[in-house]
Design goal:
59% strand, Lipocalin, 14-stranded antiparallel β-sheet, single chain, 2 helices, mainly beta, 6% helix
Length: 303
Amino acid sequence: MFRSVILASTALFSVSAMAADLGAKKPTPVAAVSNACKETKALPVDAFGFATGSDVADVGVWGAALDNVYVAGGKGGKTYGYTGTAQVSGSFFPCFEIGPYLTYTIAGFKPYGGIERQGTIMGAGVEMKYKLLGRAPHGIGLTFAVSPNAGAYNGFTIYGGHDSVFNNSYRLLADAELMKGKLFGALNLELFQSAYTNTVPGFRNLSQVNVRGALTSPVTDSLYVGAEASSQVAMTGMWLDGRFRAAAVYVGPTFFWAINDKFSLNGTWAYQVYGNDKSGPSRNLGTAVFPLHQARLKLAYAF
């Protein structure tokens, strides 16, 4: 009966991690910044798909983006979800990037032969990223990101369907140049938290941990193509300290296209190759929490 709550959370989890990732090309850094921010060559943070690179905006560099995440396919019926995020992002201080954003999520589930249930979330948040290590001096880029946000859920629950929801994410973003000028890799460790004020007891607090790995290669100076794999686990409790909800493994292709000096477009599609929930492995995949398909399309603009 709380399926639309879970689906809305899943869609919002997918996009809350992306909030300050503009993906725009950066100018050559000046020499007066921290060693962590000195890069001989900028790597678009969006080049890896859902995974994120370690670069942060240079001081005074700002941009805007419209990020679209879609999910579909589930066990026992029709599952769908969409989250749109509009945000600006930039830097006032070396190695630090801040990005306020607005989000809108709609998600629904219709069991076979049953009644469709739908929910929405409207919210706002801010992502803060701090670069700890730079690829140029250390061989690996490493950034820590946190993204608190809050919103209002409206949809079907046994208590009338109106809830406040509070989310947060903690991410460790690493990337490296694996083959000089030819191949780049990224590894993300992600923890997402979601707290509802008035939903089913035992499911008010949800958490999810993801491990993402991605490879990408520049086909031209403006086009990157690659692939991503992720393992995702959902639990009750804010710190993965409750009951097991579900697990899923995804793989899929990625692309990043710098259309010109101002605009960039990136996208990815991830397909669930393994799914498991508390009832056991699903022959049809698409667990009760994780959708069969996850996709992203993002348009960014650099001021």
